[in-house]
Specification:
With 141 residues, the protein is of the alpha+beta class. Helices cover 28% and strands 33% of the residues. It has a 7-stranded mixed β-sheet, sandwiched between helices. It binds coenzyme A (COA).
C-alpha cells in the first residue's frame, strides 16, 4: 500500500460520494491537494486539504468500508499533516459531524466556530456544505 498525492479522479469522487461527504465544490471551488492510498491500482482511501499561508483545512477523508478499522484513516491524516507542514502549514482545522472521537485520538481539540480564521470561515464546508451542527476542531503541526 502506498500513499501519494493525486489529482481528483473518478475513483476519489466515487469514494467521497459513497461516504456521504460533500463533493459539489470539489471541481469548481478552491484548490485542493489530495492524497490517495492505493494497493495494486485500487483506491483504498483518500484525504484532502485546502491551505492559505499557514492555515490548513483538512477535508474529504474517507476509507473504503473493507479497509476500515485497520489504521488507514489514522495513517492518511498523519500523511496529510506531514505534507501540509512541508508546504508551510502550521495549524490544521476540520469540520466533522461524525468523527470527532477519531480526530481527538490524533490530538485535535474542539474550538468554537466563531474562533475560525477567515480562510476557514470562508470555505464552502464552513459556510454551507457542512451543517451548522458540525464541530470545528483544530491541531497545531
Ligand atoms: C472516518 C474514517 C475515515 C475512519 O477510517 P478508518 O480507516 O476506519 O480509520 P482507522 O482504522 O485508522 O481508525 C482508527 C481508530 O479510530 C476508530 N474510528 C474510526 N472512525 C471513527 C469514528 N467515526 N468515530 C470514532 N472512532 C472512530 C476506529 O474504530 C479505530 O479504533 P481502534 O484502533 O480502537 O480499533 C472512515 O470511517 C470513513 O471513511 N468514514 C466515512 C467518511 C467520514 O465520516 N469521514 C470523516 C469526515 S470528517
Amino acid at each position: 500500500m502506498r500513499v501519494m498525492e493525486t489529482a481528483l479522479s473518478a475513483d476519489v469522487l466515487a469514494l467521497l460520494e459513497a461516504s456521504g461527504l460533500p463533493t459539489k465544490d470539489l471541481r469548481a471551488g478552491r484548490p485542493i491537494t489530495f492524497l490517495a492510498a492505493s494497493l495494486n491500482g485500487e483506491l483504498l482511501g483518500c484525504v484532502g486539504y485546502e491551505s492559505s499561508r499557514d492555515v490548513v483545512l483538512l477535508r474529504s477523508l474517507a476509507t473504503q468500508p473493507m479497509s476500515q478499522g485497520s489504521g488507514l484513516g489514522l495513517q492518511l491524516v498523519m500523511e496529510l499533516q506531514q505534507h501540509a507542514k512541508a508546504a508551510g502549514g502550521r495549524t490544521v482545522f476540520l469540520l466533522t459531524t461524525t468523527a470527532a472521537p477519531f480526530f481527538e485520538r490524533l490530538g485535535y481539540e474542539w474550538i468554537a466556530r466563531d474562533g475560525a480564521p477567515a480562510f476557514i470561515a470562508a470555505s464552502t464546508q464552513f459556510s454551507g456544505l457542512c451543517p451548522g451542527s458540525a464541530q470545528l476542531m483544530t491541531r497545531r503541526l
